[in-house]
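A student in our group prepared the protein record below, which I am reviewing. Thanks in advance; the entry in question is below.
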Amino acid sequence: MIQSHYGEIYALTTAIFWTITATSFELAGKKVGSLSVNYIRLIVGFILISLFTTFSRGMFLPLDATAKAWIWLSASGLVGFVIGDLFLFQAYVEIGSRISMLIMALVPPITALLGFITMREVISFSNFIGMAITILGISLVVLVKNPEGKNFKFSHSIKGIVYAFIGALGQSLGLILSKIGMGNYNPFAATQIRILSGIIGFTIVFIFMKRWDKLKEAVKNKEAMKYITLGSLFGPFLGVSFNLLAIQYTTTGVASTITSIVPVLIIPLSILVFKEKISPKEIFGAIISVIGVSVLFVM
């Protein structure tokens, strides 16, 4: 029975890992900045996953990947890690990991829409209902009624919310590109290619922005490095790899549905670690958004 649900188990494990990594990277980002955190965590993640593949596959680098896999997975790394995560990590700093991950619940609806646009995948009526419920749940949290009038206003930084949305868009497109490029290829080796692409992308960003001094300061910050290492273990290494394992054993939709419970899982950590005061409306909104994602793919 368990064997028939490997994909679902991997997806649930991914959600737990991403909850830990989001909290760790928020702590690190507030100390040394999101750009440095992004770059360092990819390097640490690459070292960890390369050591793992050396023992598990007998290869330090994914030299057995096809040209197609390299092209599509590299594109996925650029879109997902460089563009998507660059904005997501800045959203952690602007509005915190809890609200950022709630907005990331938009990944499955966006993925469905991109699937329709790029591959003409059918979107059913229940899919639209699921999307509407997800957006409603998120709106309950990020929108509040303006006491001065009948209009609504954002309860958090608009810039942070936009950053998180761009992060969701990047992850959705990265997921589709990964699905195309990976096929039956080893998911850990596939993650290596994505991370390599991300490192190259961020190196170019650092060259143009001339932020090497900030990077040196970040490496010297022991507290930040502790959180970056923890986040790298559960993010680029274990989290991304288990997510790819999940979409190998089940559909992208089911995997996205299960991993979308992060906004609910992160609530206890937000209370314990950041001492956030979370209203019942925010908890209700997070649960509603997860229900919406479930309706999107399960019904």
